[in-house]
Amino acid sequence: MKKSRGRTSRKRRRKHLQRFMYGVNCSHKLEYIKLKKWLKERGFGDSSLRPAQFWGTGRGLMTTKALRAGELVISLPEKCLVTTSTVLNSCLGEYIMKWKPPVSPLIALCTFLIVEKHAGEKSLWKPYLDVLPKTYTCPVCLKQDVVQLFPEPLRKQAQEQRTTVHELYVSSKAFFSSLQSLFAESTATIFNYSALEWAWCTINTRTIYMKHSQRECFSLEPDVYALAPYLDLLNHNPNVQVKAAFNEQTRSYEIQTNSQCKKYEEVFICYGPHDNQRLLLEYGFVATDNPHSSVYVSSDTLLKYFPPLDKQRNAKLSILKDRGLLENLTFGWDGPSWRLLTALKVLSLGEDEFTCWRRTLLGDVISARNEEQALNITTKICHFLIEETQHVLLQISQMKRDRENLKKQLTLVEALRLEDLKILQKSAEILCNLNVTTV
User: Fold this and answer.
1) What's this model's pTM, rounded to 2 decimal places?
2) Residue 98 vs residues 102, 177, 219: alpha-carbon distances, Å
3) In 10 A of CB 275, how many CB atoms?
4) Nearest-CA neighbor of 270 among 290, 250, 249, 297?
5) 3-state DSSP call for residue 337?
6) 397-402 CB contacts, 8 Å cutoff, 24+ apart
7) What is the pLDDT of residues 116-144, one digit of tens each?
8) Disulfide check for 150: which of 155, 220, 256, 401 has CB 3.0–4.6 Å away?
């Protein structure tokens, strides 16, 4: 009897460990059963991928068989994709064709999503709409208190994103009103700001790149979006490589993996070599140990460490500005970037060394003093950013206790700041070794 209990306990532990490692298969859930049936009606064959809930990444797709490098992971027929052609073939087509000035492909797709979501049970796309996120974590959706905790330049970019979406809403109101004959209730109620924000985030975070030919009924903005049901459940991993493209022969969007994947593991794709600030801005998430990530140094932070009385200061700044060396100054996993070190070396040039600024830009060593000063200031900036990041993390920790409703949003910013801290600590270690070598 005891043996049986022990065996059961071990079995339960093994099952728990497998769930932790591989994730929990969700294909038995009604929304996924309906989605697979709906996709099958549109020509999507059975795939080895199953929807699952993973410990680290949330919802994703697991493989039920081992995948080899070069193997086709998924092939989604054109009939399953949502493109501007889908929109033109819907009830919106005639309204878009006659509207002047022409709407953008983006607004056409946003309008389609809002209309189909509003249609509810009557929508032909309901099985897909039912598995789309109800809310998003792109900066445009976050509370201002949370956005204030972002590092620069992300804080500024978040504000620009908010402005973009708001302007898109305001400029599209007249077009939305022109659709009134399609609805019993007011278009102002259906096409409200939160509806557009949800649709915009859906397009921004979930579309695949698929170039379409230019059509007169649309503005000149690139028509490169396609929503891909089921395929869009694949999560991002910066360390994987895939080939993804529309196959003109099979008329399907196909993804081929360039790496192996074990049975029951999560299958990933790569959205591109983006750092964490870009991932949060565009997709609303952060990747752990992202090799492409870096911490940005603002020009204001840079100038704190140089005396304003330096007679050549303005000339040095002009040199750097003209060559774009006051932007994209970063610390990465391999320490300070060449751009950051070069900017600091130019700013550290002594009065008698200033004429050598061109040589500095070419990477020449001007003097031991210049090298040492630039390295010391780099170290000071790194430590300042470590302290600043730790201070913000403390703020986030306090806010998570006091603002329960913001916990999910705060956890996202916390993840970003923790990754920044790891990068800065690694950079500090590298700088310490460089200083020791210099001495």
Assistant:
1) 0.90
2) 8, 14, 13
3) 23
4) 290
5) coil
6) 399/145
7) 999 999 999 999 999 999 999 999 999 99
8) 155
